[in-house]
Amino acid sequence: MGRWPARTCHRFAAAGRRARRALSNGTPALLALAFAVAATAADLPRVALVGLFPGKAVLEIEGERYVLAEGERSPEGITLIQAGEGSAVISHEGRRHEVALSRAVGGRYAEPERRTVRIARDGRGMYSASGSINGRGASFLVDTGATLVAVNRNDARRFGIDFEREGTRVMAETASGQTAAWRVRLDRVRVGEIELRDVPALVVDGGSPRTPLLGMSFLGRLSLREEGGLLLLEQR
User: Fold this and answer.
1) What is the pLDDT confidence band of residue 7, given thresholds at 50, 70 and 90?
2) CA–CA distance from 93 to each of 43, 99, 116, 133, 230 (Å)?
3) Which helix (H) or strand (E) element contains residue 164?
4) 56-61 and 64-69 beta bridge pairing
5) Long-range pairs for 3-11 at CB < 8 Å and ≥24 separation?
6) CATH classification number, 49-105, choose in 1.10.238, 1.20.120, 2.30.30, 3.10.450
7) What keywords sit in the KW lines (predicted)?
């Protein structure tokens, strides 16, 4: 018979002590047992599945987001066992749980109103989408590897972004090496029917990127999944 992890044993022991105290105080045995079980179940961190890709899942664990490959483990001890179609199997302290896309386990969750955008691959095999920045038309390249929405300085001026006055100057790593950039916040970013406000972004000096990148500062606030060759974005 396998042994319980030490952390789990300590929790069961503590729950048992609380149950015995409850019994000594006259609490009914069934209620005391339920209290002990609830104490251990509550130790599961709150986990929401917000994105699915082949062999990978985007999990939100206690408010922190991670892209985990199957077999990888988060700092909170959540291991991704399997990324399926519409759900994922996770493991925590030896116990498996199935969580559906845009649903959560281990905490309260209310079903949100959703808006969905379906994006097809372009001729290069990339996901590209039409939308707008600050109300002005834009074509985006979806890039889950980009931390922020990113535009070049000429596009930034076209979108009405006063990056030199309102932005914070930083150095950015590009394919050509390090270059000057400005961290800014965009009033509005829209793709299809989904519009988000106050989106962190990066304005890169020069002509790169040629096409605005739709990075995780926008995508990370949505649910993502691939289905039938399409990328589905769902507003949560």
Assistant:
1) very low
2) 10, 16, 35, 44, 35
3) helix 163-166
4) antiparallel
5) 4/94, 5/93, 5/94, 7/93, 8/40, 8/93, 8/94, 11/39, 11/40, 11/43
6) 2.30.30
7) Hydrolase, Protease
Q: What is the CATH number of domain 116-235?
A: 2.40.70.10
| Token pair 């106050």 in the structure block, residue | 198
Taking the C-alpha atoms of residue 68 and residue 14, their distance in angstroms, rounded to an integer, is 32
- The DSSP H or E segment spanning 51 is strand 47-53
Q: What is the pLDDT of residues 154-209, one digit of tens each?
A: 999 999 999 999 999 999 887 778 899 999 999 999 999 899 999 999 999 988 99
Q: Helix, strand or coil for residue 123?
A: coil
What integer best gives the mean pLDDT of the chain?
80
Q: Where are the domains of the chain?
A: 6-41, 49-105, 116-235
